[in-house]
Structures are given as C-alpha cells and as structure tokens.
Design goal:
The protein is an alpha+beta fold and 399 residues long. The chain contains twelve helices and nine strands. The chain has a four-stranded antiparallel sheet with strand order 2-3-7-6, with no helix packed on it. Helix 3 packs across helix 5, helix 5 runs antiparallel to helix 6 and helix 11 packs antiparallel against helix 12.
Length: 399
C-alpha cells in the first residue's frame, strides 16, 4: 500500500518539490516580514500550481506536498497549508456562489484565507465556543472574539465558527464565510515565537446572512472536524519535513566536525543518538502516510489514525530538532541558523489543530468506542468482571 512504500514517481516528485522550495520559494520567504502575510510568496505558490494541488489532492499527496516544502522552506509550507485550512470548508460546504467568488483567487494566491475557530476561552475545547451569532431579521450579528487565528488580521476572508444556539455544545455551532471588509470586524496581529502571521479578531455586531452560511445552521462543528481530519495527518507531515531537515543537517555536521581525535559521528554516544533520531523520524513518517491512506480510502478509523499521526509526528519532530541543536552546539543557537529557525518553528504544531493532550484523548475515546462495538470473544456485554475496559469505564472515558 502506498501508505507504507512510496512509488518511484512519488519519490521523484518529492525531490523536485524540495529543490523548488530551496531555490525558488526560500528566497521569497527571506524577503518577507516575520509575522506578516507574504503575498509575493503566495502568488508564487499559485503560479507554480502548488495551491491548486491543495484542493485537488488526496490526503497522501497533501502530506507529501507539505513534508517536501517543509524540508526546504517552512514559510512556504505554512503559507500553503493556511490557504488550504481556511478555504477547505468553502470547497466542501460552501455554496456555488461562495466557491465562485473565492476559490479561484485562493488557488492563484491572490486572496488570503483564514480558519477562525479558536477563542480566548476555547482552544482545545472547540465545542465551548462563545462567539455569538445573535438573530437579526433573516440573518445574524456576530459578537465576540477569536484568538490565535493564522493569517489574521490580514486575511481577505475568514471561515468563522459561531454559536447560533440550535443545541448546547457542538450541536449549536454554525460556520460562516465572513469577508474581511464586513463592518464591525477588526483585529490585531500577535507577536509570537514562531514567525508565521497570527492574530486576534473582534466581532462587534458583524452582519451575516443565510448566504454566508457554510452548510446548514447547527452543523458547523461537523464542517470544522471535516477540515481537521484532513489536515491533522498533514500537520504531521509538516513536522516530519522539519525532522528530516534537522536529521540531514545533523548527519552532515557530525560526519565532518572533528573532536577528540576523530569526527563526532565516530563517538558511540553521538552515533546512537543519530540512529534514534532517524528511527523515530521514519516511524512518524510511516504513521503519517498510513493515516493519509486511511483518509483517502474513507476508512471509519480516520479520527484515531489522524490523531495518532499528528501526535507522534509533532512530538518526534520536537525530539529530533532538540537533539539536533544539542549535537550542533552553540552554532545552532545563532540567529539565522537552520536549527535556530526549526527550533522556533517546531514548537507550535504540538499545540495547534488539537494539542498533543487532545490527540491522546481522541485516540483513547476511539479505542474504547471500538471495544464497546466489538467485545472480545467470551466477554459479557460489559467486559470481563473487574476489567476497567468494560462498558461503564469506557463510557466515562468517551465523554
């Protein structure tokens, strides 16, 4: 299965993307202002047809695209991914008029998209959203805040999730496409550790109507999860790309740097550390591909696989980059060094689109749900006596 062994064509395509990222995209990224949307970089991604691939590829090709770009230019990878994250709900749930208005410009890199889910009091617990869509005639008025929104406040439109109140929790959330020029919509940039653009949004009675809905009222959480289940494995691919870049830099450094009468790579402690970095990176890479393959097959276990892939890949990338910095020594801490850049970049993916702790919760819930659906042979309906994996325990974990 391609989830475990890439074909020659796929490997060659990835190699071309890595070269393209280093030679054509990285120079544009270097000219951009940290923390601001780099529109020339987006335009180049559109000109090269890479943004189009975000909307026409399956999950595995999306992972290969993000991994390869991340290896050579993390800024280009992030710009591409944010376009996909912000506009995917429009592709899947938008009306014909919404798709006609926005998607061509997003694919060309002329319009900047953003996915506005998180709030000051609702990050990992997305069902706790407080942004209110207050009924106003045939439409609504949006009142509240969003925070930690990538591409805010410079995006041209936002996929916004707000509470329309059909039911409590996730069932009361609706999704809207909100152009940036709507009256009452403001925002400010946030100065973050990682250099990509991110900000907060303020909604002061922003008007939206039925024509702005993505899907139907009360189904916005499904729109959000549909997007996140696609992009979570590819967040893992982004992390794998960074891990591979750090690993290759470490191999080159430890093979050439002399110390204690030889090269660093001759020291058993160093060689074993590099072997561990490589093994973990390859394991994460294969798990990401397997999750993407499951998504492309429309497998019912996509939520569990996607969570596993994001969890392992992002935690692995943190491990690999950290040890790469250690093996490089003080040089890796100097501003502008590849590993100094990766060290700042690698931290955020363990938090956004579901923190590592949330991924573990999803994995456990899916495992216990499967156990309840298919009890072991010879077990009663609640599992063996005294077994904590029985029905009462599983129900509590699933909530």
């Amino acid at each position: 299965m391609t989830g475990f062994a890439l074909g020659v064509d796929q490997e060659e395509w990835c190699a071309r993307l890595r070269t393209l990222a280093a030679e054509r995209l990285a120079p544009l990224a270097a000219k951009g202002e940290p923390g601001r949307v780099n529109r020339p970089l987006l335009a180049e991604l559109g000109e090269l047809g890479l943004l189009e691939r975000v909307f026409t590829s399956g999950a595995l090709d999306l992972c290969l695209l993000r991994e390869s770009l991340a290896y050579g230019c993390t800024e280009a990878e992030t710009a591409l991914a944010l376009q996909g994250l912000g506009a995917h709900p429009v592709l899947r749930s938008g009306s014909a008029a919404q798709r006609d208005r926005w998607l061509a410009d997003v694919r060309a890199g002329r319009a900047v998209a953003a996915f506005a889910l998180s709030e000051p009091g609702a990050g990992s617990d997305a069902a706790a959203l407080a942004l209110a869509a207050v009924p106003d005639g045939a439409g609504w008025r949006l009142r509240g805040e969003k925070c930690w929104i990538s591409n805010a406040p410079e995006a041209d439109f936002y996929t916004v999730f707000a509470r329309t109140g059909e039911a409590p929790g996730a069932k009361g959330v609706s999704a809207f496409l909100v152009p940036a020029d709507r009256p009452g919509l403001g925002g400010e940039a946030l100065d973050m550790l990682s250099p990509h653009p991110i900000g907060s949004l303020a909604f002061d009675g922003v008007p939206v109507g039925p024509e702005d809905l993505l899907g139907v009222p009360g189904q916005g959480f499904r729109v959000a999860m549909d997007t996140l289940n696609l992009f979570r494995p590819s967040v893992g691919a982004f992390a794998v790309g960074m891990a591979r870049a750090a690993l290759d830099a470490t191999l080159a450094h430890t093979a050439a740097r002399t110390a204690f009468g030889g090269v660093l790579g001759d020291l058993q402690a160093v060689a074993h550390r590099v072997a561990e970095m490589a093994t973990r990176t390859e394991a994460a890479r294969l798990l990401v591909y397997a999750a993407a393959g499951a998504h492309d097959r429309d497998s019912p276990d996509v939520p569990r696989r996607a969570a596993m892939a994001k969890l392992l890949a992002t935690e692995t990338a943190q491990y690999v980059v950290d040890h790469a910095v250690q093996l490089h020594g003080a040089a890796a801490l100097r501003r502008g060094h590849l590993l100094e850049h990766l060290y700042r970049e690698v931290r955020a993916p363990r938090i956004y689109e579901g923190a590592s702790e949330v991924q573990r919760t999803i994995i456990a819930k899916e495992l216990y749900r499967g156990l309840r659906a298919a009890p072991l042979p010879g077990d009663g309906p609640g599992g063996p006596p005294g077994d904590p994996s029985g029905e009462p325990f599983a129900r509590a974990v699933a909530r």
